[in-house]
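FIELD: query
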Amino acid sequence: MKRLVLFVFVVGMLPFVCLAQEQNPFLAEYDTPFGVPPFDAIQLEHYMPAFKEGIRLHDQEIDAIANNTEAPTFENTIEAMDRSGALLTRVSNVFFNLNSALTNDSMQELAKEIAPLLSKHRDDIRLNEKLFQRVKTLHEQKDALTLSAEQRMLLDEFYKDFVRGGANLDEEKKAELREINEKLSVLTLRFGENVLKENNAFEMVIDDEKDLAGLPEAVISGAAETAQDRGHEGKWVFTLHKPSMIPFLQYSQRRELREKIFKAYINRGNNDNELDNKKILLEIAALRVKRAHLLGYQTHADFVLEENMAKKPEAVYELLNKLWAPALARAKAEAKELQEMIDKEGGGFKLEAWDWWCYAEKVKKAKYDLDEEMLRPFFKLENVREGAFSVATKLYGITFEEVTGIPTYHEDVRVYEVNEADGSHIGLLYVDYFPRESKRGGAWMSAYRSQSKRDGKRVTPVIVNCGNFSKPTGDKPALLSWDEVTTLFHEFGHGLHGLLSNCTYETLSGTNVATDFVELPSQIMENWASEPAVLKWYAVHYETGEAMPDGLIEKIRKAKHFNQGFATTEYLAASFLDMDWHTLERTERLEPLSFEDKCLGEIGLIPEIVTRYRSPYFRHIFAGGYSAGYYSYIWAEVLDADAFQAFKETDLFDRKTAQAFRENILAAGGTEEPMTLYKRFRGAEPKIDALLERRGLN
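FIELD: result
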C-alpha cells in the first residue's frame, strides 16, 4: 500500500497544499542528472494521479491570481500565469512525448481519459471571468505600462488567448464551446491512433525469392530481419514504415507488388473498418467550422491564420497559386520523361503513381549516373549526426558531448550535453532515430523541459529529436537515404531553436512562435547538408573511411533540381487540400473523398501523382498542430532560402551572420512579431526569388 505524504510548499508569497504519493516520481523534484525525467521509475499508473494533482494545483494558482484583491499588475497577473502549472506541464511533457514515441494500447486509452480533463481545465482558465477582467484591464493600459518588448508580447498573447478562447461569449455559448473543445480533444487523438494502427497492421510477406528482383542487398537483408521479428522465419516482410516501403518502390521489378504496398499506404484510414477515419475527420472539420462561427470567424482558417504571418487565407492561396503553375508544368514534363523510360524498356503500360519512384530512379541513373544506393554507403547515421553537430559548432561555437548513465525511455535513445564554447551548460539533446511499432511515423522535435528564466537563473532545456530512419541491418550500420539525411538536419534545426532559446517566459520561448515561422530554423539547416564543404566532413564511406569523391558530389549538385516538380506538386496539393478543408463554412452532406477529389481536380493534379497526404491519414491537420497551416513549410522556405543567401553572400560559416541569426531568430522565440525579427536579421522582407531558383521553378 502506498503511503500518502501531506506537505505544504510556497510559490512566491502564496501557500499551497500538495498531496503527494511518495512513490510517484512526478510529485517530487526529479533526483536525476540535469533534472531529466526519471524514465526508468515512471509507470503507467503514475500518470493519472499526477495529472489530477497538477490540475488541482494549477486551479489553486489560477484562483489565487483571479481573486487577488490587489490591483492587477504585470507581475501579479501575467507573469504569475506564465509561471503557474509547473507540475501539470512536467507530467504533460512526459506523457504526450512518450505517447508519440513509445506508446501502447493502455497508454492510448489513458490519453482518451486525459484529453477531456485537460480540455475542461484549459476552458476553465480561458473562461474565468475574474481572471479575464484582470488581463483585459492590463491590456487596455499597456501603453502606459513600462514593459519590455517581450513583456508586451506576453501580455498580448494572454489577452488574445482569452478572447480566442471564448472569454467574450455569453454563458450559453461558453457551454457550447466547452463541448466542442472536449469532443475535438478526443477525436483528434483517435484520428492519430488509427493512422498508427493502420500503419502497423500492414505487412507484405514475400516467400518467393524471385519477388525480390531489383532490390539492393541491404533492403533484402532488412526485410529478412523484419520477417524474423514478426514470426515469418525464412521469408521477407515489407511494411509501411518508410525505410521499408520507399526502397521497395524505388527498386522492385515486381510492378504488382509496388502497387500493393503503395495502395496500402495511401488508403490508411480508408478501409471501412474500425480504424476508418473518414467519419472522424468530417466530424473534426464540422466542429472546427462551428467553433469558428461561435467565435466570430468566417472559417477555421481565418481563426488560425490570424495568429500566423499569413494573417488571411487569401495570402496563403496567393503563395500556393504562385508556385503551383510552374511546379505542375515541371511535374508534367517529368511524367513524360518517366513514360519515355517505360516505353524504352518495352514496359507496355501507362505510368501510374506506384511507378513514379521506380522510374524516377531509373531516369536519374540514366541522366546523372546517380542513384540512392550509390549515396547510402557515405551516409552512416552516426557520421551524419556528427556532421549536423559540426555545422552548429562552426556557426555558434557550441559543443555536443554524449552523456551516459542518464535515464532514457528506450535503448535506441542517445543523449548529448550541449555547451557554449566556454563550457557553460546550454541544455540536453535526446535523439531517437529508429522506427518501431510504438512510435508514430515521420520525424519531429519536442521538449521535455522548455527554456525560461526563473529568479534571474536560466532554466535549461531538454530537447528531443525523433525520426524513423533506416536501421542497421546484418553487419551493416544504419545507412541513410538522402531524404533521411536532410530530415535529420531539419529536425536538428528545430532542436537548435529549442536549445538556443534565451527568453524569460516559457510561453514565448523556443518554438512557441507562429506556425509559418517555426519552420525557418529547421529548413535553413537543410542547406548546409548539401554544401560540398560540409559533405566532405560527414559523407565518409562506412567501410573505407574515404570522403565522398568530388565526382559524386558534382553529380548530386547537377541532380539537385531532379524530380522537384513531383516533390513540389505533391506537397502543394496537400497544402491546397488542408486549406480547402479549413475554409469551409459548412460541412453538411459532405463526403470526404468526393470533397478531396473535387479539391485536387480543381487545381489540376495529374493522376500520376498522389497528394502527399490524403485526408484519412493527414495527421498534420487532423491530429497535429498544422490545421490551416500545412502551407507553413513552403512559406518558411521563402524565408529560409532568402536567409541562407545572407551566408552565401558572406561565408557559409560567417560568425557575424551566424550570431545575428542566433540572436534574432533562434534565441528570440516568440518575443516579437516574426517579420520584425526576420527583418532585424536580414535587413529587409524576404523575396520569393531564392526559393524559385532553389527548386528550379524559375
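FIELD: remark
The domain at 377-558+632-694 is CATH 1.10.1370.40 (Neurolysin; domain 3).
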